[in-house]
């Protein structure tokens, strides 16, 4: 306990239990009394950090007079009180009025900032909402909703928390201030929580979208060109014209060599992946001819290999078969003898 009693106004973030700051979690762990609204802050955020003997007060079930009595009791008993606010406690939730009341009661007061709902919604849609032509963002709370038309005339990005039941009046003031019906709008409800809803629409369709999703409680609207949904790029193969031929990827020198090696290996088993690669990278005859010409230009001229000598052998005429007579039927004729010359 403190010497004078302390009240801490803690921003619990957009709603998720793990988006509270370390300082905010420490304040909850030190508190004797925790005042919070289950509809705005995740119950896990309180159960995880609050002490077992801490008094938990549902803000939606008590009056402002009862809250003031809790502050008075804290001042008299030197208790620590945490008042949880959704989002950032320093930018909304009527913290200023309660802050001044606690100071008058003699309590020590501090404000712990939190992750703003606007920041969580911008992070959800992936847009930096301050990067507009005017480089500014107008924040509008429910209390200042009557000034929507005046702020709309600035034509900057607008972040307005408005009751869903009053969306029709909100749209009328946007149009009155100068926004067109085609102006982009993001509807952000319970961002970061399990039942969050984030919808891209326009000013002209805003009221019908809210009715469709039955959003009657306070809802965050981001209005302006900065929240326009980015155009997604589609692959060229999906958008190619039917008449336009699809160009196959040009095979490289290495893919052609691999395909050649695979096709020549007939006896060896070929993996299925290699066969697929060979089929995809089948060389184009025109490209092969170009590659051969380029290689012949790049490589130095080499001496032609000596041609093997050819020996021409004349074919011999076939000899007629020799017929030999049998010894029993044919005899060899004796050789003719020259006649002797007579003696003179």
UniProtKB/TrEMBL annotation:
Pathway of action: Cofactor biosynthesis; adenosylcobalamin biosynthesis
Q: Which CDD domains does this entry report, sorted A to Z?
A: Precorrin-4_C11-MT
Region Disordered: what ranges? 236-255, 295-344
A Pfam family annotated for this UniProt entry? TP_methylase
Give start and end of each Tetrapyrrole methylase domain: 7-206
Question: InterPro entries under this entry?
Answer: 4pyrrol_Mease (IPR000878), 4pyrrol_Methylase_sf (IPR035996), 4pyrrole_Mease_sub1 (IPR014777), 4pyrrole_Mease_sub2 (IPR014776), Cbl_synth_CobM/CibF (IPR006362), Siro_Cobalamin_biosynth (IPR050161), Uropor_MeTrfase_CS (IPR003043)
Record carries keyword S-adenosyl-L-methionine: yes
GO molecular function annotations of the record: precorrin-4 C11-methyltransferase activity
Superkingdom of the source species:
Bacteria
Q: Which family does it belong to?
A: Belongs to the precorrin methyltransferase family.
What's the protein called, per UniProt?
A: Tetrapyrrole methylase domain-containing protein
Q: Which organism is it from?
A: Lentzea aerocolonigenes (Lechevalieria aerocolonigenes)
């Amino acid at each position: 306990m403190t010497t004078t009693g302390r009240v801490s106004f803690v921003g619990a973030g957009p709603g998720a239990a793990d988006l509270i700051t370390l300082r905010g979690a420490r304040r909850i762990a030190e508190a004797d009394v925790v005042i919070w609204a289950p509809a705005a802050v995740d119950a896990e955020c309180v159960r995880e950090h609050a002490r077992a003997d801490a008094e938990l007060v549902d803000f939606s079930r008590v009056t402002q007079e009862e809250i003031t009595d809790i502050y008075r009791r804290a001042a008299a008993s030197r208790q620590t009180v945490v008042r949880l606010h959704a989002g950032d406690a320093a930018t909304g939730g009527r913290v200023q009025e309660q802050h001044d009341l606690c100071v008058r009661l003699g309590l020590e007061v501090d404000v712990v900032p939190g992750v703003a709902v606007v920041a969580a919604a911008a992070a959800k849609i992936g847009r930096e909402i301050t990067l507009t032509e005017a480089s500014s963002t107008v924040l509008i709370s429910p209390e200042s909703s009557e000034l929507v038309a005046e702020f709309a005339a600035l034509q900057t990005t607008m972040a307005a928390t408005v009751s869903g039941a009053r969306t029709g009046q909100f749209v009328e003031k946007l149009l009155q201030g100068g926004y067109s019906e085609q102006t982009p709008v993001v509807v952000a409800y319970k961002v970061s929580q399990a039942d969050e809803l984030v919808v891209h629409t326009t000013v002209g369709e805003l009221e019908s979208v809210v009715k469709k999703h039955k959003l009657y409680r306070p809802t965050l609207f981001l209005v302006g060109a900065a929240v326009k949904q980015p155009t997604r790029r589609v692959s060229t193969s999906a958008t190619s014209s039917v008449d336009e031929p699809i160009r196959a990827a040009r095979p490289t020198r290495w893919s052609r060599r691999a395909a050649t090696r695979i096709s020549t290996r007939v006896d060896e088993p070929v993996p299925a992946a290699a066969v697929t690669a060979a089929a995809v990278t089948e060389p184009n005859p025109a490209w092969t001819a170009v590659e051969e010409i380029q290689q012949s230009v790049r490589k130095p001229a080499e001496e032609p290999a000596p041609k093997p000598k050819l020996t021409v052998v004349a074919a011999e005429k076939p000899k007629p078969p020799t017929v030999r007579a049998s010894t029993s039927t044919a005899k060899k004729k004796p050789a003719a003898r020259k006649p002797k010359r007579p003696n003179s």
